[in-house]
Each structure stands twice: as structure tokens, then as C-alpha cells.
Amino acid sequence: MRFTFFPVVVLLVTFIGGAYAEIPGDVAEFNLSNGIHVITRTLDNNEIEGFSFFLIGGSAVLTRETQGLERFALECAMTGSESYPGPELRELMDRSRAEWTGTFNYDYSRYHLRCIEEDFGELLLAFGDCLMRPEMDEEAVERVRIRRMEDLLEEKSDPDRWIWHVANDAFMPEDHTYRMLPDGTPETLAGFSADDARRMLDHRVRAGNILLVHAGPTDPRELTHMLERAFGGISEGEDIVPPLEPFSISRDTVVLEPRETETAFAVVKFNAPPRNDPDYMAFRFAMSLVSDILWQVLRTEHALTYSTYAGVSSYRRNWGYMYVSSPDPAAACSLMADVMAGVIENPVDEDLVRGMVETELTSMKMALAKKENQCWIMGEGYMRTGDWGSIFDDMEKASSLTAGDLSRVLRRWVGKGGWGVIADTSLVPVESIRPWPLEGGGS
Q1: How do beta strands 48-56 and 210-216 pair?
Q2: Do residues 215 and 258 both lie within one domain?
Q3: C-alpha radius of gyration, the chain, whole number
Q4: Is 2 part of any domain?
Q5: What's the burial of 437, exposed, middle or buried (CB within 10 Å: 0-12/13-18/19+)?
Q6: In a domain, 439, yes or no
Q7: pTM, whole model, 2 decimals?
Q8: Which of 63, 121, 131, 150 lies 20 to 30 angstroms, CA to CA, from 220?
Q9: What are the pLDDT digits (tens) for 117-126?
Q10: Domain-located, residue 442
Q11: CATH number, domain with residue 152
């Protein structure tokens, strides 16, 4: 079964899915006295500071028993320290109206600070003190544990969130590094103590594991002084993060999780280029194209879903993915496989590609207005290639991609798929749930 794909308006865009952006010229790099690397972009367009703390390692420094411990330790540390006990830290946060946001993924943990310039120095001091001299108040630690347990249980109870884990069971080998979950499991979280959290911080908060990225009005000289005061006391040393094994999926696979649910959920994952591979940006554009066509085919033409999309991850090892929620998962998944095979075999209209590219470029330019995104882009580029500007350069090159380029990069990387399906087997026949080959279509 094959489809003719007509040009449509691209509705789904992704932040770093590709964009034309010149490499900024107002960026400086330096090391603190203990070796912590710093990237800073001086922006005096307003008094808002953006600052990201990256702790590099992620799943590679976890074990079956310590899954979730790094996140647990960092969140416990952020409840107070020796110089900023819990009540004083909360008063500082309330007074400054500062925003701390945490991200914990397979490759790193990240805390991002957004505040005004006059409070920047004190907030950095408080953060550094929390990392090096955490208070670990017993009640605060227990509150973190309860909150994390509730989040995990809520995720498992929501099939729309849990489907990604089911797809991992089909796609990732059981012993792959990325099977170590940065969020942890209810079983591991239940056993962590304040002493476990302290030991994790003592081991992980070392200069060689840390990257600091700043975007805001504070100039490099003053920033150096602030960061030395806040983080100069962190010990030297680093964890050796080993090379990451590829995803070696040799056959199309499906994992079905029966559950009482009115609609079924399905995700397929397949190999994709790593973030530092020359093919990565073209692959990301190609998946944006696939995402748009999925909407046209599954939603508009066949009325099988209210939600479908496609994309690619952004890690040291990557996967592409397609998602759908539908009362008829067999029909929907078969069409998804056909869409992928169709784009691989027959390049789509160039006008469709040009429209998608321009939409992505506009999305990126708008996203760069946020200093948090600038910190993330520069940090990602440095961690992937050692060059903070590499992502900007990749986006510049991606602006000339053609429909043929997108088909070729999918053909090069998309192979066997790991399918995860959550469905009510009293409504959906079990025999209809099977792997749908991406390379040859689903029919």
C-alpha cells in the first residue's frame, strides 16, 4: 500500500530540528582554577541572567542499584546547605523570584537558573554551597523521595507516558547503558538514604564532570570572579565515561502491554545517527517531514487518531521514533510503516521540503530569544563535539537540504524497528499486534 503525498502546511516544529543561525561572535571560554570549563555569551539586551550547570555522565555512571540516585541526590541538595539552611534558601528564592529548573537524561543532569542580574552572584553562591555542603535535612530528604515516588507512579499509570518504556523493551537490549533510568524506579528510590545522596554528590560533583554555560549581561571578567567564589572549591577529578554501545536490533520486534484503556498507544523506535554524526541534522529534518505526513495520512485522510508525530532523540546514541494513539492500533501502525517506507523510496515534493525547512528556521530563531535555550544549545554542542558552535554550523549547512537528501539519510539509517503497544486486548485482537516493517511498509 502506498500513498501520494501532497504539499501541506507544516504544523509541528521542533526547537533544534534545524535552523539557519549564524555562529555568535560574543562568546568566550575559560577554565576555573580547578579546571571547570565555562562558556559565556555576553548579552546586555536586558538584566535577565541565564546559567546552566551540566553534570556529565547520565546513565553511564549508574547501575541497577543506583538508578535515580544522582537525581535524588541533586534534588535533596537543592533543599538547603550549611550556609543556606532550608528556610534561608527558600527566603532567598522567594525574594529573588529566581527560577531553578532541572533536567535529568541519559547523558547528563542539568540545572538552569533564571534570575535578574543583581541577585545572580548570591544565587550562584547558594547553589555551590548546596552542591558541596548539602544540609540533607531528614524531613526535606523524605519530601524529595515522596515527590519522586509519586512522579514515577503517575508516569506508570499514564499509558501515554509509559508507552515509551514499552518501546524501549522492544528496541533496547536489556544490558544497554540507556536501560539505566536517570529517574530511577520505585524500588531503587525506596532504598536511598541521605548518606547515599551525600556519597553520590561527593563522587560526582568533581571539576572534570562539570560544564558551566552562561548567557546574560555579566561580562566574562566579573563572571569569572563569581564562579570562582561559588564553584572554585569543587575538587578536581572526573569520571571516565566509556564509549556508548550501539543499538543492535537485528529484527522487527513488538512488545504488547495489555491494559484497560479506551484508546491504544503505540511507539516504534529505530536507529538514528548520533548527535555528533554529519547525518544528524538531515535526519532530524527528515523526521520533521515524516511527522507532518503522519498527521495528513493518519488524521486527515483516515481519521484514525487525534495525536501522531515523529522525531529523533538527541543523545550520544540516538533513535528515531513515530508515535500514535488510536482505537485501531493495527491499522494506524501499518499506515505509519507505509509512510516511512514511502518517504524513503520516493522523495516528496521539493516545495513541501522548502516549506518545512523555512518553518524550522523560523522556530529556531524565535527559540534563541530565550537565554535558557542558548545555554542549552552551546552546552550540547560542546559536550557532543568539544565545540560549542558546532550546532550553529550544522544548522547553517542544513538550510540547503533537498527532498533527495532526506530520503537518502532515512534509507541509510532506518532499519529494523522496535514497537511498543499498550492496548485493551478485550477491544483489540492480540493477533493483530505484530511488528510492522519500516523498510518495506506495513501492508
Answers
A1: antiparallel
A2: no
A3: 23
A4: no
A5: middle
A6: no
A7: 0.90
A8: 131
A9: 999 999 999 9
A10: no
A11: 3.30.830.10
